[in-house]
Amino acid sequence: MAYTVLARKFRSRSFDEVIGQGPIVTTLKNALAQDRVHHGYLFCGTRGVGKTSMARILAKCLNCLAADAPTATPCHECNACLAIARGEDVDVIEIDAASNTGVDHIRDLRNNAVYRPTRCRFKIYIIDEVHMLSPGAFNALLKTLEEPPDHVKFILATTESHKIPATIISRVQRFDFRSIPAGEIAGQLAMICRAESVEAEEAALKRLARLANGSMRDALSLLDQITSMGGKKVASEVVDELIPATHDELFADLIDRCADGDAAGALTVADASLGRGQAPDVWCTLLIAQIRDLMIMRVCGPDTELVDAPAGLRGRLAEQCLKFDGGAFVYMITVLEELRRSVKASGAGRALIDAAVIRLAEASNFSSIESLMSQLGAPSSPHVPVTNTAAAPRAPEPATKAAPARKSTTAPSAMTATPPPRRATQADLRAARAEPLVQAALTAFGGQIVDVQQNVTHDNGATSQAPTNQPS
User: Fold this and answer.
1) Which of 102-111, 239-248, 399-408, 443-452 has the lowest mean pLDDT?
2) CATH class (in words) of the domain with range 247-365
3) Does residue 154 register a pLDDT over 80?
4) What is the per-residue pLDDT for 229?
5) How distant, in Å, are the alpha carbons of 279, 282, 329, 337, 352 from that of 341?
6) Which residues make beta-bridge pairs with 42?
7) Strand partners of residue 158
8) SS3 state of residue 436
9) pLDDT for 440-453, tens place per residue?
10) CA distance 137 to 114
11) 234 - beta bridge partners?
């Protein structure tokens, strides 16, 4: 007998077996109990989260021959339930939209929809990857999808919901399937290992769950792969040998190198990460996601629910988030987003990545002025301009003897002209350098005191000399 892969053998057969989609299960159960089943559904979500399985379960609930009416608990034993589970039922037609994209295919569907089902209550069309249909095919489907015959139900599934026309979405009930949490995936893997008499280490299963990235099917495929190598045992050593370090682990190493200012080490880790075969733009997206988690943990604390990180990695992320301030993380994300857009259209993508990694290694030099001033013990109130800390204080103007009043023959506008500012002298600059706060600011920012002047035109048309660069 041919071997059945775990992803097919342990496919969810009922609502109670569905993992990680509680709200959707509850809604569909209530719709069946209240006889409020819609004529069209749209299941959206990433790969391996249960869209097709949910469609088949709903089809069994509607067409189970052991029940007198649609039920939320199909028998799984009648001919209809067994055929639907295999995808072979004559009244439940599964269509791959990727290979049936044209208008003619939808016209055939529309023409056949008028005929009643052969043995079941409903004729159900499950259209997978529906976003692959052509615009003409979508238009041909509109009328039938809006007002189908009473015996017809549509279940559409897609991984790219943004490609579905709004006219289609408005005619169906949309359900967004979320990625399955790693903890629930690990629990399901443990149950499957017990059913298959496979000895499994908890740490190994947790890593497989994390590698699956929210996809139950990916997790089962990985488990199949590990058991093929390790026999009846799933051990961490086998996982480490067969599956190289995950991208999030390499990214953590890359961020550590950047925090240390080790550009050479960062380039080495980036090379190892890119060597896993990830496309440059996808690599940038994944790294942005990890840095985003660090930024959120830095701002909101390591226990924030805004970051969905595996427990094994959260501790390391909590340590890393303290190595940069929020401004540095913002800078890093900006650099990587600019890189992501550039590498897609550039023939020198690797050079751009290396240049960006070097910039990230220098990210520790980019801190917010407020954080630097707080380290100096200076006020960081926005009402006090930080640039004033490096400005040379003006010496008081020496008192001069008032000149006798004279009758002026100058136009009134000239009489009100603003006198030109006095140029700072070397004595002024030396006095400014003697201030302790100015000395601390100069040390922190690596700058120097300057007196900048330029020509300024006043409202009355007069021109005066403003300060120009004069380093101390």
Assistant:
1) 399-408
2) mainly alpha
3) yes
4) 83
5) 13, 11, 19, 6, 11
6) 156, 174
7) 44
8) helix
9) 666 666 555 555 44
10) 18
11) 200
